[in-house]
From TrEMBL:
UniProt keywords, alphabetically: Membrane, NADP, Oxidoreductase, Transmembrane, Transmembrane helix
Gene3D superfamilies in the cross-refs: NAD(P)-binding Rossmann-like Domain (3.40.50.720)
Keyword Oxidoreductase applies: yes
Domain of life of the source: Eukaryota
Protein's UniProt name: Uncharacterized protein
Entry's family note: Belongs to the short-chain dehydrogenases/reductases (SDR) family.
Organism: Arthrobotrys oligospora (strain ATCC 24927 / CBS 115.81 / DSM 1491) (Nematode-trapping fungus)
Compositionally biased residues, Basic and acidic residues: 371-396
PROSITE patterns per UniProt: ADH_SHORT
Biased composition range(s): Polar residues: 416-429
Length: 438
């Protein structure tokens, strides 16, 4: 059959075969698209690891990159703790139920840890640490983040901090510093890994520790990548500094520290955040994104392709033995393009600034909560007082009854007294009738 087909093509020409000319015209473009798609798709993780029984915390695990990571971990039987804004969400309940049913893994649940509130982070970490013996913890994946589109207004967290700085950096600093005791007490033979999401936009960032929220420099609404990149520079310097602190820690048993923390650059993906950025957060922009979607399908990664670096960081044994504090890009260690990120001076200054800022915010938030609690207690007391006064006004007064000369029964003597009364009444009525007749 192939010989006859080739003979016909060479003898009679390609036009003699139905649809062959069209296929030959389309085939080079299809091959070109395939090559471009393969190139922009990036590297693929080829290492697998048994995750049954391992406890993994994930932020941002309900959509985009985090959801792709959660699905892969769930398929491997890992115990997943989703850190979410609120657990009182019906969609979240359905999402977890679907995950459990799809992968036959009931070890998936959610805990409230809102990254836009330092108080919420402290509540969760305190709850996790308040356990004896210490809880098992194998990995932490910090994949949540915000990225405002160009020409958008400045937004703040619940604590009044600029959103990029507050969520992409300050929340991670607060979370990691509070969770350090839980990580340090893990057994020495346990391979503990922390993965923090970053982005190549850090190259465009402008970090100034004297003005990290761009208050004095004016918020760059037209160029939000300046403050977004600044937050990513800070979080990458944080990762390097945290790894140094883990390495300097001396365990009571004399064993080496078994905690490794890495930054992971997933690349540019077709995630909800990227879609919002490209569409400028508008309906018209979204329509433009849909029209040009074939182009983005070729040049942008899917969330599964972007998660390959995280899979390598979680599964590859090399990342459990390496130095740590470095950048994972395309499933391998890549150098920072800004050498100041690994500077000890920057890391120490960043810790000092962050510590002072967190203390100031938490103090102000505690005072505000105390005031609000006092107002609520006063309001409750006032409401209780008003309800009592209303009850007094509504309560009916007992009516005074005139004495008719008859006995009133209040106990078991009712039947007897009633019978006596009827016996007494009958003769009276009879006497009246007799009198009338007479």
């Amino acid at each position: 059959m192939p010989v006859e087909f080739l003979g016909q093509v060479f003898s009679e020409g390609a036009s003699s075969v139905p649809y062959l000319p069209t296929i030959l015209r389309v085939l080079p473009w299809a091959v070109l698209i395939y090559i471009l798609r393969w190139f922009f798709g990036g590297e693929t993780n080829k290492v697998e690891r048994v995750m049954h029984g391992k406890v993994v915390m994930v932020t941002g695990g309900t959509s985009g990159l985090g959801a792709a990571i959660v699905h892969d971990l769930a398929s491997k039987g890992a115990q997943i703790v989703l850190l979410v804004r609120s657990t009182q969400d019906y969609w979240l309940i359905d999402y977890i139920s679907d995950l459990r049913k799809k992968y036959s893994n009931n070890l998936i649940y959610a805990e409230e840890c809102d990254l836009s509130s330092l108080h919420s982070i402290r509540l969760f970490c305190t709850k996790w640490l308040d356990n004896a013996p210490p809880r098992r913890l194998d990995s932490i994946v910090l994949a949540a983040g915000v990225m405002a589109p160009p020409f958008s207004a400045r937004t703040v967290t619940k604590d009044g901090v600029e959103a990029h700085w507050g969520v992409n950096y300050l929340a991670y600093y607060h979370f990691l510093t509070l969770m350090m005791p839980a990580l340090k007490v893990q057994p020495p033979d346990r391979d503990v890994r922390i993965l923090v999401s970053t982005c190549a936009a850090y190259i465009l960032g402008e970090l100034d520790l004297n003005d990290p929220e761009f208050l004095e420099r004016r918020y760059p609404g037209r160029r939000p990548w300046l403050i977004y990149g600044a937050a990513k520079i800070a979080v990458m310097a944080l990762v390097a500094e945290v790894q140094k602190q883990f390495d300097e820690y001396k365990r009571p048993d004399g064993m080496p520290t078994n905690v490794k923390i890495w930054c992971v650059d997933p690349g540019i993906m077709r995630s909800p955040g990227t879609r919002r950025w490209l569409s400028l957060g508008s309906v018209v922009g979204l329509l433009g994104y849909l029209v040009t979607w074939p182009l983005w399908w070729v040049v942008l990664k899917s969330t599964d392709e972007g998660a390959q670096g995280f899979f390598a960081g979680l599964y590859d044994p090399e990342f459990g033995k390496g130095k740590g504090g470095a950048l994972i890009r395309e499933c391998k260690v890549s150098p920072y393009r800004k050498p100041e990120i690994e500077s000890e001076i920057l890391g120490q200054q960043l810790f000092e600034v962050s510590k002072a800022q967190v203390a100031k915010i938490e103090k102000a938030a505690a005072l505000e909560r105390a005031k609000q609690k006092k107002k609520d207690e006063e309001a409750e007391a006032k409401a209780a007082k008003e309800s009592k006064s209303k009850e007094k006004d509504v309560t009916p007064k007992p009516k005074s009854q005139k004495y008719c000369g008859k006995k009133v029964a209040f106990s078991d003597e009712t039947d007897t007294i009633t019978a006596e009364a009827s016996a007494t009444d009958t003769p009276k009525s009879t006497n009246k009738r007799r009198t009338k007749k007479t």
